[in-house]
Amino acid sequence: MSVSIKSLNRSFVKSNQTVQALQDVNLHINKGEFITIIGPSGCGKSTLLKIIAGLDLHFGGSVKIGNADLKGPGIKQGFIFQEHRLFPWMTVEKNIAADLSLRDPEIRRKVDELIEIVRLTGFEQSYPRELSGGMAQRVAIARALLRNPEVLLLDEPFGALDAFTRTHLQDVLLDIWKNKGTTMILVTHDVDESIYLGKRVVIMSPRPGRVSNIIPIDLPFPRKKVNRSFQELRQKVLEEFEKADEFILVEGSGI
User: Fold this and answer.
1) pLDDT tens for each residue of 28-81
2) Residue 64, Ramachandran bin (φ over 0: left; ψ between -120 and 50: alpha; else beta)
């Protein structure tokens, strides 16, 4: 499912002052595309994801999921937070099923399939307290995928994990994307992660958040972070960050 964002604006009132979080954001994500969004803290990355998820409808402009105007949360959109948010009293398989019954043969089949996809076979009856952070996040990914969302939104899902686990889950996510063809939009602070996963890297400027540049990543999978081509793209992304900061400083100074 494609996502089309046109002239998107979002502001908040804080301490009797209006804060512009997003300003004139325009972005089109193709069906089955994996894009990553990076930018400094406070630039509106997470706000943008919540809007696409239908969790925040207080915006100006247009957001379409496929050909339909965004009306609110729905089964078309799945959302994964940085914290796994599992139910501590439920086992792995019951957390994935959530409010659906495992007695339903079709739900049972889908849950078993997802447990295998996220590499948690053997942990079906485990509770969240018995899982590592990476394993718990895999449960959260499986839960989001159970309803076959056409757009999967990920808000820094690996930010709290160690480097080894983070790399492992990046590869798990890529496997899911290749096998299911789900449109994926991932927010991250990690430049390497944005290049490793994305077909395009969307760079956002400091508040008010705007799309300052979009860099295509024409590297084949699997990608190697030590390769020269990867490092050249990394340098290009970092340079675009600096340009975005300079633009905001110049614009704000009245020069």
Assistant:
1) 999 999 999 998 877 889 999 999 999 999 999 999 999 999 988 988 899 988
2) beta
Average pLDDT (189-204) is 94
The terminus-to-terminus CA distance of the chain in angstroms comes to 43
DSSP secondary structure letters along the chain: --EEEEEEEEEEEETTEEEEEEEEEEEEE-TT-EEEEE--TTSSHHHHHHHHTTS----EEEEEETTEEP-S--TTEEEE-SS----TTS-HHHHHHTTS-TTSHHHHHHHHHHHHHTT-TT-TT--GGGS-HHHHHHHHHHHHHTT--SEEEEESTTTTS-HHHHHHHHHHHHHHHHHH--EEEEEES-HHHHHHH-SEEEEEPSSSB-EEEEEE--PPSSP-TTSHHHHHHHHHHHHHHHHHHHHHHHHHHT-
The CATH class for the domain spanning 3-81+150-240 reads alpha beta
How many Å apart are CA 26 and CA 7, to the nearest integer? Answer: 6
Sequence ranges of the domains in the chain = 3-81+150-240
State how far the Cα of 253 lies from the Cα of 255, in Å rounded to an integer.
6
Do residues 206 and 244 make contact, with C-beta atoms less than 8 angstroms apart? Answer: yes
Residues 6+ away with beta carbon under 8 Å from 35? 29, 184, 185, 186, 198, 199, 200, 201, 202
